[in-house]
Automatic annotation (TrEMBL):
Belongs to the TRAFAC class translation factor GTPase superfamily. Classic translation factor GTPase family. EF-Tu/EF-1A subfamily. Keywords: Cytoplasm, GTP-binding, Methylation, Nucleotide-binding, Phosphoprotein, Protein biosynthesis, Repeat. It comes from Turnera subulata. Residues 31-260 form the Tr-type G domain. This is Eukaryotic peptide chain release factor GTP-binding subunit. One of its GO terms (biological process) is nuclear-transcribed mRNA catabolic process, deadenylation-dependent decay. CDD domains: EF1_alpha, eRF3_C_III, eRF3_II. The keyword Phosphoprotein applies. Gene3D superfamilies: P-loop containing nucleotide triphosphate hydrolases (3.40.50.300), Translation factors (2.40.30.10).
Amino acid sequence: MEEELRLLQIDNPTPAQIATSLDEIEEENKKRHLSVVLIGHVDAGKSTVGGQILFLTGQVDDRTIQKYEKEAKEKSRESWYMAYIMDTNEEERAKGKTVEVGRAAFETEKTRFTILDSPGHKSYVPNMISAASQADVGVLVISAREGEFEAGYKRGGQTREHTQLAKTFGVSKLIVVINKMDDPTVNWSQQRYEEIKKEMRGFLKRSGYNVSKDIQVLPISGLLGTNMKTRMDRGVCSWWEGPSLFEALDAVEVPPPDPSGPFRMPISGKYKDMGTVVMGKVESGTVTEGDSLLVMPNNTPVKVLAVYCGEKKVRRAGPAENLAIRLSGIDDTDIFFGFVLSSVANPIGAVTEFVAQLKIHELPDKFVFSAGYKAILHIHSIVEECEIAELMHQIDMETKQPIPKKVYSVNNGALVICRIQVNNLICIEKFEDIRQLGRFSLRTKDKTVAIGIVIGLPLHQ
């Protein structure tokens, strides 16, 4: 990590040289920045797609690729070599599955991208949630191979759960890439493409996506890099007339964030390097080198020593940027994931309860949702045990108005207003104030049981 955040390499720099270099970097950073999360069922090819993106943008050389090919062949996993670019630890390479969230960056002429490669296995959904909570755009990777799409799409498959969780955590734009189109069972079949596209568009519409505005579906081969950086040759696929993946990403339109709000950066990583370094995505406001901030909820004053966008040191950075910030005034052992780096003038509140609007998704068998129900709360980078303290109202699904009678329990599909309690102080916002800090999911027994938004906070926060 120290290598990733190295300082500018200038031999004996003068103050003027440093200022000029920082100005040049800030000029580069005027390109818009988008965080892209790769989601989908296990074995759909997410890490291969991520690795291929880095190879196509010149961040991995041929010699390294040859080394990975040899390593994969020795493990009798010849087709996994591109995934080794994103899956860097031995457990991931041995099992052929992503465990941690892989992170990398690349640029096109218009946009700087951060790639977040999330795990596809159901055991690692919390890690996928962490990645989705930091993303602006989703790339849903689906395998076209015979039987693999169906396995991911059936109830319990991660194609469904990842899609719904991405929507919950604010990923409103989705590019659906139908991968492995080069597989012998598919052979760039238009019929197979249309079959999957039709099924997914219906499901995405039911999940709350505007399929005409927010969804794009395109065929690719992650292993071969076909239709990724450039449009594919008509000799490969005669029927495709749409864009490549890079073109589709560059064309995604997301509302520009407001840099004038109170500073908020949920902390999703930390380490020690000439001070304490915290990592996360800025959800509101702007940070400048030299700023005084607070680490919440422990209300610790800190000073910003340095700000990094990827490997580049910058003077200031605004919302939607994935940053590493070096701080003084706090030790890394006093920081936990889910803490929030916050402005002093308008600090984020810390609470142990809040009011939420919840949609019940899928309860475990023989469970009902009532006061006393316990679950794991996932909200931005927070993972915390919680309990339903009170069901306040059930909402009529047609009129969207409270049903005027006492509610004691609800089942799948219900919409409720409830009060939720946690044991430890957490930093959240109302959804109407800062959306990314007010969306959440509740999970039990490896299932997403409910999704919701924060609608009320205690007045004494």
